[in-house]
Amino acid sequence: MTATDPALTALAQGWCALSLLHGRIEAHIERALQAQHDLSAREYSLLDVLSRQHDGEGGHLQMKQVADAVVLSQSATTRLVTRLEDRGLLERYLCPTDRRGIYTNVTQAGLALLQAARPTNDAALREALDEAAKNPELAPLVRAVETLKAPVPA
Asked: Angle 74-86/41-51 helices, nearest 10 degrees?
């Protein structure tokens, strides 16, 4: 394949459209969450991921799993956790069965903020998708996003 190969060009164009859609959605959500809840999109995502943890086997996420879920490096995730911990939205504690492990839980204040911010996040997502659907290059991607279903846990 060469750089002028039509298939590669179409692939690159598709990737650019996907990147553009992602950027627009993230920016719209970021503005809404910041304005209404003093929360970044990454902070919201981290609170959301950690709020889904549970006690029992496989219930708590390791920091690498959290980093993967919020699409950040482990060091950036640790800084984000620390920032939210300083705000009283998260707490860390030692794993009771492995003193080397550290768990991170969402506090009641964090859960309250997440609950208050969820409608804002959802509305901003809907607005961003509706706006993007007006663009012929992005409309097929919007339809694809709208038809995705969350995987059913095994």
From this structure: 90
Output Rg (C-alpha) for the chain, integer angstroms: 19
> How far apart are the C-alpha atoms of 62 and 117, rounded to whole Å?
25
87, pLDDT greater than 60? yes
The structure tokens listed for 125 are 């997502």
40 confidence band (pLDDT: 50, 70, 90): very high
SS (H, E, C) the chain: CCCCCHHHHHHHHHHHHHHHHHHHHHHHHHHHHHHHHCCCHHHHHHHHHHHCCCCCCCCCCCHHHHHHHHCCCHHHHHHHHHHHHHCCCEEEEECCCCCCCEEEEECHHHHHHHHHHHHHHHHHHHHHHHHHCCCCCCHHHHHHHHHCCCCCCC
pLDDT-derived band of residue 53, with 50, 70 and 90 as boundaries? Answer: confident
pLDDT band at 58; cut points 50, 70, 90: low
Residue 97 phi/psi, 5-degree rounding, is: -100, -15
